[in-house]
Amino acid sequence: MRPFSYTRARTLTDASQTVSDDRAMAIAGGTNLLDLMKLQVETPSQLADINRVGFAEIEDTDDGGLSIGALATNTETAVHPRVRADYPVLSRAILAGATQQLRNKATNGGNLCQRTRCYYFTNIDQPCNKREPGSGCGAIDGIAKLHAILGTSDQCIATYPGDMAVALSALDAQVQIATSDGGSRTVPVRDFHCLPGDTPWRENVLEPGEIITAITLPAPVGGTQLYRKVRERSSYAFALVSVAAIVELEDGRFSRADLAFGGVAHKPWHDPRVADALIGKAPSPELFDRAADILLEDAQGFGENDFKIPLARRTLHAVLEQAVEEAS
Amino acid sequence: MTVHFKQDKPDESNRLDDMRQGVIGKALPRVEGLAKVTGTATYAAEYSIDNCAEGVLVTSTITRGEVTSIDRDAALAMPGVIAVIDDPRLTTRAAQGTADEAPQQKPKTVCYWGQPIALVVAETFEQARDATKHLAIEYRVEEGAPLDPNTVEPEEQEDETVHQGDLAHAMSEATHSVDVTYTTRGHASAAMEPHAAIAQWDGDKLTVYASLQMLNYNISELADALDMEEGDIRLVSRFVGGGFGSKLGISEEAVAASIAAKELGRPVRVVMSRQQVFQCIMRRSETTQRLRLCTDANGTLTGFGHEALVSNLPGEEFAEPVLQSSHFLYGGENRELMLKVARIHRMTAGSVRAPGEAVGMPALEAAMDVLAEEVGIDPVELRLKNIPEKNPEEGLPFSSHKLAECLRQGAEAFGWDRGPRKPRQTREGEWWVGTGMASAARVHNVSEAKARVTLKPDGTALVETDMTDIGTGTYTILSQIAGEMLGLSPDRVLVDLGDTRHPRGPGSGGSWGAASIGSAVYVACQAIREELASRLDVEEAELDLSDGKAGSGESIVDLLDGKDLAREGYYEPGDIADDYTASGFGAFFAQVRVNRFTGEARVDRMLGAFGFGRVLNHKTARSQCLGGITWSIGVALTEALEFDPRDGHLVNPDLAEYHVPVHRDVPDLDVIMVEERDPAASPIQAKGIGELGMCGGAAAIANAIYNASGARVFDFPMTPDRVLAAMPD
Ligand SMILES: Cc1cc2nc3c(=O)[nH]c(=O)nc-3n(C[C@H](O)[C@H](O)[C@H](O)COP(=O)(O)OP(=O)(O)OC[C@H]3O[C@@H](n4cnc5c(N)ncnc54)[C@H](O)[C@@H]3O)c2cc1C
Ligand code: SF4
Fold first, then answer.
1. Which CATH number is B463's domain given?
2. Neighbouring-strand partners of residue B116
3. Would you say the ipTM is above 0.95?
4. In the listed set B221, B247, B280, which residue is the last one of a domain according to the structure?
5. Taking all residues of chain A, what is their mean pLDDT, rounded to a whole number?
6. Whose CA is nearest to atom 2 of ligand 2?
């Protein structure tokens, strides 16, 4: 860990000003940032503690949706009565992540910004284009079991590891951002995280000085909502593959099929063509396979993670089968 | 006064059963439990010592070569940084268990990625840790270090080799045969408490507070590393937050702290980071194991073959003793056993809980399941049929043998269905559900041990030895043994462990702790009883002691006449080890579900039935079994060290990515302890318990995965990717 100075921001403006300096970082729950600082993966010279700036409420929005404060904890969010009643996929996704202790500390804003779990990223004595641009990618010819099968680049094949954002992507939630000039902007969750491309160090669209203030959920969407996370142990493990699903049937045919996938890409993966393939059709294993074909059309494995391609297909089957069963 | 007892013949007298206090075997809670859960038990790093400086190990970023220079100027200019130490006496590996001499030193010679090469000392831990990253280190790299055990010509461990009869011929003649190859991945001990030491000098005398399992060996290993006399060293390890083999030998931080403290003239603490514990202590070797088993038409083994390939660094003597129980568990007159070790440059391979059987038994017992299917016989029946009368290789009798009873009692309690077995018979929603079983075996070891027992005029007793309690219950069982023998309630027996000022114990390892140190305490107590008997003018055998009184009513205190009555017990295993094969045995039964879409396997319930001689405390013994079964779940489903193919570094060196089972992976576990007194195992008829619970359990799970889903997986751990790859459509 490098020495750093610490300031407790009283207001959003304070915080925003501090983090405009690109050697400064915001700290919320600290469950990701502090670990990375100890490993010297992150080396901010200054930390702005944003835990006292507000934005911890969970409140109804005018259009019947829900605004979830960036500084509300994962636990508060998952157990909130409206989240449980109207957005069960979100509650389930959060509860599938990390552990109770971590969720008690982890904030929603921090969760969206959590860094990849690539083994080479967290070891500063190994090459990694994300951590040290131009140093090479340790994972591509190394141990890549956790790595991406969709949207990779020759620079980086890491995944976004989180669960919550996968559900938010299925729900088409919006990220509310305070900009450094005192204004604000809104970015759909589906556009918040980036693909690695030639800029693997860039994981999301936040600009220096920007702070997430809230995540807004649309008016309740109903449907059967499921979150399925496949993992190597039954808790406290990141997803090999996960699927968030909001599914509805009318007259035995899909009328809604909002699906997002975790553990497969540098961002929660949402491919609108999957819903297009399903909507208006009657569920069948063949249909699910067609949807999987579309989803995985460009999928590419790196040896160790080849299994994710059939696993994603099978998990999609499992989720759709369960959703259809629960919906009818 | 030291009383020496060497066990040369079986002891059927079962003296402990004649005693009157009635505390032996009782499920007493651990005496140090409250201190631990309230945070008042002081672990190695937690001693508060004035003026203590903080050291952090610097580790190599190459796999093989030489450190040619360390530019320390930048680091030394940093605030708080006191010294950069690269003394040639620094050790670069942990000593193997019972090594009794210093491990590899000369830190400039690098043999694996992540090897300690220097120590930075600063006023604070954070300063030292940061400074380690500011050293400019130059290396001369020796390219081409072999990293993959399958690409080098391995060395045969000749003392393990058995060629008996003609296995190839037996295989070709047999009615039924299987020839299958399994792999297991490396494992880490993953103890909660990281390796830590504080060293403090008083002139030429050194005291080290450390987290170690075997002070009796560690003191000579440290003395050898520092070129000192043992008598000038004191080691203290009162509480050890888990060891599981990783703390058997002196490790790098203890030697480094000692050298630094001397050089700087002030105490120095060195605590390893979690990543360092993973990367530079011990790994269990990965294994490749070929099993060849063949039977006659009835399922009686006619041939038994087990060959294993393991790995270690060049120069290390330890080779994962995969075949240990294979030598005697089952019959079969044609036998071929062979262990080979590949020399590769991953970190040191050494003992991790149940070295050998932890991985050898799962492969053997999974192969036995394939064989049972081939023969068309119930897997329990197959085992029962093949229990040998005596050791099939050496011809020695067994000291005591409870496998059949464990199989029968376990099957009964589990509700094992002896009907025909076919995979994929039960489905609950997305999950295939099935059952599997396996035998357990783990060789019994004992080691010489000394303990001093003092009966005090205040009516209490004191037990002193440098034996450690690594969380297993040693404090508690010794208070029970002494209490039973001396007629005292265990809460009147103070047990003082983990300090080399006391008589040498056996150390905690190889499951030999309880039987060995328990026997030393027994011998000491027996001598005290004889003295008391003579003071009472009765035969020792007639001495009835309970609650501080003799049977005739005299108070023990009155017999002491205001003085301590002390005896040192010295127990030595003796020749009996050459006359018998001694082993713990058991059986595992598991019900497992396998998700038909995702290949995830989860254990629904699991039972272990074990025979390991006299149970000294039913609670601590059961806890050992529960822990062992939990490790079995890890071996079966989740635990695997992953090494980079290019430089051999461990890529998952923390508890987030090295997956030990979590609570949700561990269902309700049942433990049956089969009544047994092993007269040849030890004078207290106890055998080793700590490791047996994980010796074969993973196969019960693997066999249940097959029974549930039809996926015959040959690679442990059976993660979803592997189960899916083997699952029929
Ligand atoms: C062992 C372990 C296992 C885990 N398992 C899972 C899992 O299975 N699934 C899962 O989803 N997660 C998992 N997590 C990750 C966990 O969910 C995240 O660490 C947590 O959500 C981060 O939130 P935080 O408030 O602690 O963030 P911090 O650590 O405080 O911050 C993380 C990052 O976000 C930035 N940041 C924080 N708040 C804001 C804001 N409002 N605006 C802009 N930037 C901000 C910080 O600058 C920093 O870069 C695991 C974590 C650990 C340590
Ligand atoms: S996959 Fe990405 S994060 Fe991992 S080593 Fe390569 S560049 Fe770094």
1. 3.30.365.10
2. B59
3. yes
4. B280
5. 97
6. A156
